[in-house]
């Protein structure tokens, strides 16, 4: 199968996204993950632009990577500088990477108004920069910035900029949709023209401002482009870059090409989520292929069909990309959903048994009160085990109290809990950063001596949603808590007019789920 080369710019373009800032250690760990996935090129940053990138390239030289080549990024020389004296070019050399990527102007508008040089001077800058780096024995990737805008305004000059880079020895000519405003039919037509004219391999670098970056990248590949640039999860400035988490499986599974190996493709979901954690960005649940909802089914008709043959409502098997099928239970569900989930957790339910219908009715009644089990499967499992007699009671609450005190301008929270474990009475107090953290700490303090496995788990996310906003401060709230241990992540839910009570319900479910699993 034809090989498509993947060029990841998560560490440079991705880091330009609002709210993302990688530490040096983050950049190193992400590099290893991208190499593990089978990415061909990892763009490490712009050497000389900041101390962090300088340190990254120093460390990158010592990395033992299986496949990925680290690339340094920069621009063509300044029009007033000689190439060998240009600070940007010198920084690229000092990075000592096997690959350098330089961008140059292909849109005459930018040449005139951004660079403020003549069209011919710009071509000289492209040639000198590429040629100088090639003579240093480097692999040079040339990014033709704003190429599609340039081609639409002045095709002759845009093509001449590529021709200049090719004559200078560039190893790949990358067509950049820098403003992200092109559409797939335009990209396909223009890319096809370029591929026919040039012998040098052609690449695509798409931004997502028109929600078309993935489609534009695939359209370019369809007409002969062999090098695709993008970022994990589509991170990038403004609306982001082309999302490699969608492009990679599309190349492998839809177009019959080779982007990564089959053995690496099933790592895609885990790596997507790992990088979102490192970037401190909440994962996009509805992201194609790797999102937690990408293979989630809610309607009963869908569930019964998927159980018989997954292709009825799934375009690929989720396991291929390391994801998994999820069957949701809600007020829209049927018995098929309940049966599927029961089987998943090891419960044998008879579809004709009134108990199955009762469970579904309880779910519908609770959802009417404001519960939502789609994102709280752990709470649903506890509910089903209680209904079927498979639930074990680990402790019994006698009461709790939470105090929030403003002491000299500093807010302090303390929780007191009374409970029993078997015949033993426990009465503990603990402080926390807030009332929920104080409850969490107190519950741990009370239970860990009886159940040491609780030391393995921690709360990682806490969300509050007002349900009936018309009731103002008397409204019900829904609290969702996400917890994890070394192996699993699970979600629980609680609903009440009192936010502490709602939090307590979700918190208790989280602890009980961990103990049920052990």
Task: Break the fold down into its secondary structure elements and pairings.
Elements: E1 5-8, H1 24-37, E2 41-45, H2 51-60, E3 69-75, H3 87-95, E4 99-105, H4 108-115, H5 119-135, E5 139-145, H6 147-153, H7 155-168, E6 172-177, H8 184-197, E7 202-206, H9 213-222, E8 227-230, H10 244-254, H11 262-265, H12 268-278, E9 296-297, H13 300-308, E10 326-327, H14 335-344, H15 354-369, H16 377-387, E11 396-407, E12 410-421, E13 424-432, H17 435-447, E14 458-466, E15 477-484, E16 489-496, H18 499-517
Explain what you see:
It is a single chain. The chain has 518 residues and is an alpha/beta fold. The chain has 3 domains: 5-278, Alpha-Beta Barrel (TIM Barrel); 296-386, no CATH class; 395-450, Double Stranded RNA Binding Domain (2-Layer Sandwich). It has 18 helices and 16 strands. It has helices at residues 24-37, 51-60, 87-95, 108-115, 119-135, 147-153, 155-168, 184-197, 213-222, 244-254, 262-265, 268-278, 300-308, 335-344, 354-369, 377-387, 435-447, 499-517, and strands spanning 5-8, 41-45, 69-75, 99-105, 139-145, 172-177, 202-206, 227-230, 296-297, 326-327, 396-407, 410-421, 424-432, 458-466, 477-484, 489-496. The strands form 4 sheets. An 8-stranded parallel barrel has the order 1-2-3-4-5-6-7-8, surrounded by 9 helices. Strand 6 (172-177), helix 8 and strand 7 (202-206) form a beta-alpha-beta unit. The longest helix is centred in the last third of the chain and has 19 residues, at 499-517.
């Amino acid at each position: 199968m034809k090989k498509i080369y993947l060029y990841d710019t998560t560490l440079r373009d991705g880091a330009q996204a609002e709210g993302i800032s990688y530490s040096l250690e983050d950049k190193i760990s992400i590099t290893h993950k991208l190499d593990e996935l089978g990415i061909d090129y990892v763009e490490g940053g712009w050497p000389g632009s900041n101390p962090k990138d300088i340190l990254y390239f120093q460390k990158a030289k010592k990395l033992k990577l299986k496949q990925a080549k680290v690339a340094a990024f920069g621009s063509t020389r300044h029009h007033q500088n000689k190439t060998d004296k240009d600070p940007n070019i010198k920084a690229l050399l000092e990075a000592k990477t096997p690959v350098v990527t330089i961008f140059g102007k292909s849109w005459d508008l930018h040449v005139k108004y951004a660079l403020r040089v003549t069209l011919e001077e710009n071509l000289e800058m492209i040639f000198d920069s590429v040629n100088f780096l090639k003579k240093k024995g480097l692999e040079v990737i040339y990014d033709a910035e704003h190429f599609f805008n340039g081609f639409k305004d002045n095709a002759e000059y845009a093509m001449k900029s590529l021709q200049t880079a090719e004559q200078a020895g560039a190893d790949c000519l990358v067509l950049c949709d820098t403003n992200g405003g092109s559409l797939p039919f335009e990209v396909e037509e223009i890319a096809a023209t370029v591929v026919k004219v040039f012998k040098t391999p052609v690449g695509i670098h798409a931004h997502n401002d028109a929600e078309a970056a993935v489609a534009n990248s695939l359209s370019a590949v369809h007409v002969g482009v062999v090098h695709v640039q993008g970022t994990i999860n589509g991170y990038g400035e403004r609306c982001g870059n082309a999302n490699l988490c969608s492009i990679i499986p599309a190349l492998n599974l839809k177009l019959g090409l080779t982007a990564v190996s089959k053995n690496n493709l099933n790592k895609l979901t885990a790596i997507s989520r790992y990088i979102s954690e490192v970037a401190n960005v909440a994962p996009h649940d509805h992201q194609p292929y790797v999102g937690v909802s990408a293979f989630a089914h809610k309607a009963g008709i869908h569930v019964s069909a998927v159980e018989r043959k997954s292709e009825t409502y799934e375009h690929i098997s989720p396991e291929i990309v390391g994801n998994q099928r999820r069957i949701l239970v809600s007020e829209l569900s049927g018995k098929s959903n309940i049966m599927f989930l029961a089987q998943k957790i090891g419960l044998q339910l008879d579809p004709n048994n009134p108990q199955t219908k009762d469970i579904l009715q309880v779910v519908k009644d609770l959802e009417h009160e404001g519960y939502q089990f789609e994102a709280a499967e752990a709470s649903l499992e506890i509910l089903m085990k209680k209904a079927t007699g498979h639930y074990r009671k680990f402790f019994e609450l006698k009461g709790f109290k939470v105090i929030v005190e403003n002491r000299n301008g500093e807010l302090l929270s303390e929780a007191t809990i009374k409970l029993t474990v078997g015949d033993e009475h426990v009465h503990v107090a603990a402080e926390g950063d807030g009332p929920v953290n104080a409850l969490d700490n107190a519950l741990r303090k009370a239970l860990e001596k009886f159940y040491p496995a609780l030391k393995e788990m921690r709360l990682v996310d806490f969300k509050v949603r007002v349900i009936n906003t018309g009731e103002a401060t008397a409204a019900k709230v829904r609290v969702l808590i996400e917890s994890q241990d070394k192996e699993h992540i699970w979600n629980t839910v609680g609903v009440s007019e009192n936010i502490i009570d709602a939090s307590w319900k979700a918190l208790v479910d989280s602890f009980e789920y961990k103990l049920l699993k052990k």
